[in-house]
Amino acid sequence: MQEQTVGRRARLRAQTTAEIKAIALKHLSEGGPDAVSLRAIGREMGMSGSAIYSYFETRDALITTLINDIYTSLLDQVEIARDAVASDDIAGRILAWGQAVRAWSLANPEGFRLIYGDPVAGYHAPDGGPAPEAAKRACLGLTELAAAAWPYAKATQASTDHQWLDFSPGLADTVREHFPGLPPAAVALALRMWGRMHGLISLEVYGHLGTQTGDPAKLYHAELLDLLRSLGLDVEHARHLGTPRSSA
Asked: What's the pTM value of the predicted model, to 2 decimals?
């Protein structure tokens, strides 16, 4: 009987925690990151302040949990898309990653803004960041793509004189552990690949492309194909993958 009681309490706590996060995401969608408030969520749920603070001690703790959940969701989606393409199809895997990032970002614009956009007023992330495992997955995933492309790309790069001191110790140590022998120039390439993928996505999520083009999907697809060409990869097969569809 005691085990049943403990199990019931655990289920109720999990359900309440899930409801708190769901309402926080709703407030995030309606009012942006600054709209997330434990007291407001408690009022909507009919909970006292002391009750809701027993689930999340601070607003920072709730926001950290949201960032971790959202970032993990993004990585889950892009890794599935990447791994659906054969491991020897480097161009196809890069294209799949980029298209999946855009699809997730447009479906979760407030989540994108929470991860990559404006800082949340008054929020203090824990040491190591709010989502260290998801951030590591993103870093290693992009570096893996850059490493696979590097034998083709290194001859096309304008600058290959990067040094490990150009990067944060954490990034350098992580890459050198998982990709021994990969030169720092390939890490710079991974960061530039990230920048090219996220640049147009950011403009689209923040509404800057809406008045400039009626087909941002086509524009993004063209950017990814140009990225592949700059890496010295064959785009003839990749151009038929991830056929762009307008999000307008």
From this structure: 0.88
